[in-house]
Amino acid sequence: MDDNENDEFWENDLASIIVDASYHIHVGLGPGLLESVYEEILYHELTNIGLKVTRQQAMPVIWKGRKMELGFRTDLIVENKVIVEIKSVQQINPVHCKQLLTYLKLADLKLGLLINFNSALIKNGITRIINGEL
């Protein structure tokens, strides 16, 4: 197995861990809270099992060779491999998916998870977004 296969396997493993933690949070708290609450708890759960997670990391945008510091902020980046975008909305719209795909492209990452904690069933609120091929 080459390094790229290892990276892809690790990204998928991370996604499974993140989805599992999200499921347990949703079962425990249910829908209806602010995104920031779910973000804080998911951060806590993932770091407690030893994963490196950054919150609200500013990501600059490079435009015509110039670095724009006020690019965007990611909700969570897990192990510098998976971006997690947390929502607590009535429904996920196409713009939410496009936003995460843009984040992935700008961060040069392959996998993102869009998690809507306001879904009645969390499995219906999780969308995998892939930049390129995994």
Automatic annotation (TrEMBL):
Q: Which Gene3D superfamilies match?
A: 3.90.320.10
Pfam families assigned to the protein according to its UniProt record, in alphabetical order: PDDEXK_3
UniProt superkingdom: Bacteria
Q: Which InterPro entries match?
A: GxxExxY (IPR026350), PDDEXK-like_dom_sf (IPR011604)
Q: Which protein, by its recorded name, is this? A: GxxExxY protein
The organism of origin for this protein: Dokdonia sinensis
